[in-house]
Records
---
Amino acid sequence: MAICVSNAKPFIPSLPSSSSPFPLHTQKLNSWRKPTLCRSVKESPFPHPNLISRRRSLSLCLTTSFLLSLGGSHGSLEANAAILEAEDDEELLQKVKMDKKKRVERQGLISSSGKETAHLQDLVYKLNRIGEAIDKNDLPAASGVLGQDLKTDWVKNVNSALDKFSISPQEKAEVDAFSSSLASLISSVEKKDFEASRVAFVASATAFEKWTTLTGLARELKGI
């Protein structure tokens, strides 16, 4: 059905012929009409059923594709996570095996080094006696245990044992710290410097204790 709307004639005032300077133009304006405007309107305001069906099918396809893509992405993420977790587990397993191997090797070294272990046990006893003497401000007694320099036999034996059991850089670093502190301790005791002797003794004992923990010898030595 077509609805046609005819525009109304525009209002143009007619001027007297005597007062109009443009009588010919005025007549043309009066005789002018706008063309009729027509607008088509469909019989039904609702879309065709086939169009609805096509739209519904398209929407369903898009939704399905979106859900499948989400599912695929989720599955891919889970697969990647599983791969990373497996790699982490493999690295952890290798680390555990390596640590176990090192412990077995270290235990074998300790078991086969009875003489060196005895030297270290003697060091523990000496440190306990030196500590007691310094607590009592009895530096002559501490000097009697230490000796006058690093050339004494017991110091040489201890250094040899420390070198034999030290494998990792951390262990070697603690050996260096102990040797330096022991040298300061002997020097401070000989100078009868009570405060410096206390500081050097604590540094020596701390470095040695850390070293025994790193090497596993803390379980083998008594008095630590």
Note: Residues 146 and 186 are 7 Å apart (CA to CA).
---
Amino acid sequence: MKLLPRFLVLLVLLACITVREIQGNCVIPFLLRGSWFSFEKGTNTITEIDGTSMSDHGTCVALKVYRYDYKAFLFRRDECYYCVRFHIRTVNVLQKSGTGCYTFKENYKPSLEEVCAELDRNQGLVTMFNENYVPKNCRSAIEGVWHFAYQNRFSFTGECNHPGAKIQSCQEPGNQFLIANQKFNISYKKCEGIKESFGGTKEFSCLGDWFIEKNHFFAVANTKESRKDEKYRCFVRNRDDDLYMGHSITPECSVLKTPENSPFRFRMTPVKLETVNPGCLLPKNFSGEWVNTAHTEADVFINQTHIIETTYPDEGRFRKTIYVCKEQRDNRYMMARLNIDGWWVLVAREGPWEVERDGGERLTRVKKGRNGEDIRMSDGEGQKDYVCFEFVPRHHSIIRFRKGLEMILEDFSTVCSYIQFKSGREWNYDLMLAKDPVPVKCPVAGKFNFTQKGELRFETRILGGVTKSPWDHIYCRENISDLSVCDRDQKEIWIDAHYCISVDAYGRHTDIYSKDPLAVKCPIAGKFNFIQRGELPFVTRVLGGVTVAPRPGIYCKDNISDMSVCDDAQKEVWIEVDKCISMDHYGRHVDIYSVFYTTNSWSLSPTAVLYTTNSCSLSPTADPDYKLKCVGYWKENLQSYLITYDELDPYSKYRCWVYQRADLNKILMSQSVGPFCNLKQTVLGTGNGAAVTLNMVEYEREHDRCPMHFDDGSNPWKEAGANVHVFHFTGGTKYFSPSVLTILIAFVISWLLSRKT
């Protein structure tokens, strides 16, 4: 305890020493040093900054670092003190704000905070451009080929729209990976009737880009301009709407507020001309419409040679990427990626490919391919690169894949090298799900009582909730949460957040709802009582909740959460969050829902009950809270995954589940927030993408027709009916045929007889 005061004193001394060093030895960071051009108050200004001083401001006295890109300095020249704050946008662009000359009493040394307190917070930022700039890559700012219509708000009020006006920002061949995309061209065309419009081409070098909220700024330098006030310009785009772009008419960025309200405005349209010939074929069962869960649920169209992916960054906007199959080895496919912005002309080669030209106006470069063939690339051609896809053979309505890095080099051994996938030590495949999925047999089937945990639990979908009281002639013996997969094909999961169980005088199942669902196939079957945890647990969809009391004529012995996959084909999963269980004096199942059994199906009726020995399906007159169709399942990284489809889900129609069998009649499941399961998501708890977890216990009764089923997804490609095992008792063992056994037995008997003699 005696050392503690000494330790605190030492910390205070160290802090004081640090402050003195900052105030006494102010060293300007290397990134700020150099010769900078700015346009201040209508005047061209050159500012020189070295390690200790700034022109017209004197020597640096103090420095304060707010962030790595935001610093404040205190300068002194004679008796004047200046506060200057720098925003480091790129290595080539700074923005500053500062005070004028402030004087203080003789021998008084003001602090940085004291001088900077006089800085006007509403003061505009002055943009400074590095005269010895280093060009930056333009891909993050603008890429591709665009047609544009332009308007100069200070010259004319109309809009000049000429079909020949284009912005071209494309990579230039040079090094191994051709990443030197540091320039772009703007070709202006004069419009008839607008005398202020002009024609000509300007070439700009990119100086870097930065974001301020949703505005995307980037600075450029005109490579053909020697006048400094005409050399530097700023552009602004909006990250949600890339069809408009603003352009400054002076070397300033602060005048740009939004693309639409800029002094010079572009209205752009991407131009595309794709003539790349395919060189391989995709699997036939990939053809169709899909949803890419790894890319904001983008729409994907696949045929035998092309993959067309459409994303929707904002309402009413879409961006399209086209992949063309070029080469395939085993399960890896090298695809030519035609980027979302701009247009492309075929990289034509002599021989099998047709050479494409653009009216002789475009210069064509020629280089040698890896096999010695000529490859031509036209000037102004948009960004076209190559990317590798590794596909797992399709199963159910799921395509699993992973995608490598984009490269400009057309070489399979380089593009499809496994090191290009950048998966790390722990990874799993991305998913593409069929847009119109075909239900399959659920891997978990049966009837389960479940409990749920999580922030997004299952709730009733009945508006206003379930009537709490009274329910005439119904006495609820037990309220449970029910999950059932009991349709004939076991392809649908039914979930009821509040489920009241009772029986009539004959011990037959009764309920206030009659049900008859459309049967689909599920991979899990059985009847389970489950417990759920997580942020999105199942809750009853009965509006207002399930009636607690009184329920005339029904005594609820136990309330559980029920999950069932009980149909003959095990294609449906039913979930009841709150289900009431009871039995009559014969030990038969009783519920407030009446059950009507027929010879081929199990349906629900509000009045009559009839049992047979075959199967169970439900009538469509009333539905459970949730009906989830099983789309597909598989096993990966020692975990079992299931994809379900719910048309009524307001967040995502597809949901990913992790499921695991915990005991003979217990199953654990966790549902993800979206259509893709996090690599670290487990069945044990919420977090890592899990919205709700279910702890399910089968509660099948004597007269139930809902057998439990479980498939861990080890072989998702097996045919329907492959779960039937045929035992051949007359064919010998696995390793010995009957003839071998007969000969062996005869030999042993003869040897024993010979010893007796």
Note: The chain is about 5% helix and 45% strand.
---
Amino acid sequence: MSVQGLLLGLVAPMEDHLATLDGDTGGAGAAGEAFGRAQGAIETVQGDHQTAANALLGGWWGERAGAYTDRLGTLNGALDGMSTAATAAREVAAEAVDLITQARTRIDALIQGFIDEAGPIVQAALVAQQGGAPGPVLDATAQLQAIASGYVEQSAAELERVRVGLAGLVGRLSAPEVALEEVGAPLGSDAAPVSTTPAGAAPPAMAGDGGGSGGSGSGGSGSGGGGSGGSDGGGSGGGGDTATKPRLPAAIPPQPGDGMDVNLPDGSTVAAPNEIAAAAVRNALSNLGVPYVWGGTTPGEALDCSGLTMTSYAAAGLEIPRHSAGQAIGAEVPSAAELLPGDLVVWDGHVAMCIGNGQIVEAGDPVQVGDVRTTNSGMPFLGFYRPTG
């Protein structure tokens, strides 16, 4: 009878519960921080817009000014809703990470607790078995199965607690229900002219057909040619039904003479588009051979894929998101032929850094150099990105 085999079989259900809780909690934490920054940015935009609107309305009268005032209220309501939603998302992300982390800790403790309790029972049965009688071993096995059942029930309860808790957190998330389609439409009718009278001046008189003193002439009918509202100019994106990618401007190729030299492991030298990208590549290459550890963000010791790219750019002076898909930022590089050192190759679940000469550095196991590719274990490919723009 193998002590290890028996115990592993009995703790297997708890190990399955623990595996169910595996996930990128580092990405959730980074998302929470991003929502916090978004909430602050929304408040800043709202304050700046209100200040500008107040200055504009100080010298603007008529139908269009009234329409603008109404839409200003709609926009402020929408921004309030967005700010509230961002705050809720930040809080939910933090609470979700805590919920999952605590459950992992408790299930780990249950597994260890069972092993500690079961060990002496198994050892005693093995000693008794030396006499040749199978009874003690059979009794110990039945006893351990009963004990393990209790631990598994507790482990399952932890998993259920996480499920219920996450469902409750999701219920707290809601998008602001404010329609903004009309906010950017033309203001009022084309026949209503916009007054640009300076603040403090009297409203301008409208042209009429009779000018008797004290008489009220009827308004002139001049048909002003109001300009039509412009379209948003956004072209429709390609198919891409396997992954959602951000819409970013195309990366601008470096001009002659720009860039910084980087020495590659094969002895060649390449030029990065700027000092930050060059430093990021050097930082990443300094981690060649470092073992892959899920959630690892310690250069020289333990790194995962997004941990390698995030810490390499952070040491170069540029903060980028923690999660791999979140690192699709800056500017999009249209094709592999236009990749430069420091550009990121991003999947929904993995990320690598271009180092030049058609090569990438990535946190495999260990951190290693390979050829540029767009496939990775069936993950949706998002594209090539230049974090520095």
Note: Residues 260-386 form a domain with the endopeptidase fold (from Nostoc punctiforme) fold (CATH 3.90.1720.10).
---
Amino acid sequence: MASGPQAGWYRDPDGTPDRYRWFDGERWTDRTTTSPDSAPQQGRTGHRGHDNGRSSSWLWAMIIVILVVAVVVAFALHRGTSSDHNAEPDLNSSSPTVSAWNEKSTTPSASSSAVTCPRGQRPGNQDSNDGRLHGGGVSVESIPSWRHENLTLPWVMGQSAQIDDVYPGWMSVSGVGGLPVAEGFSDPQTAATMMMDCFASSDYYAGYTGEKEIRSEALTIDGHPAWWKRSEVYVSLPNLPQVRGDVVDVVVVNTGQTDFLGMYFNSATIGDSTRQTLVDHARQSLKVD
């Protein structure tokens, strides 16, 4: 039996000029071309082209899926970052909100007393008749016209003080006394710092807002080592808007006693030059008894 026509490209039997149609060896197919030399010569090749198209479709589908996943991930990350930026502040921080007193600071501090001040009651001295205030082994000149009245300073031994009313509820003071070594007042510098911290604080100043150290230096009083501290204590009092605060002085002297140190303290309203001159004169008259 003679074989039939071979599969291949033949002129289109419908007579269309320059068009060729694929004959698969048994029947005409719907595949046509105008360039039979460059077109696939076998049916297998045609199927391979169909497989490539299907692979391309799968490739595009995978690309689209990857893009969708990438967009979703990016959106989730963006929301997480936005939430972090908009998070509420940590209200449970352990950082202190009030600064402790720093003896080297030159700016106001909003702290109260930075040390534990002794609370034992100690009797004061009786008035003397020699024109001086005596206590703690030291003495200063009395200020004329100021009345004798001790302050409530439980850690001060043998206090002798004077006060002068500046405004109703506001006064200036000048006084002497002793600071017990057993309570931590170990040397003039340490004791001066402790005394300033205890006296120039919210415990003794209503409306206390802060403190600024003006000077801190070593002195010699009658040949005895001493330490002088001066600070400004600031207040805010609605009933006394004209009062900014006090200038406070503390001078502590090692008098040679083993159980206490001698101490002078005063206060004068900031800007009150008259009273400041009076307490400065008293401080400069300090001597060891």
Note: The domain at 132-288 is CATH 3.40.1000.10 (Protein Transport Mog1p; Chain A).
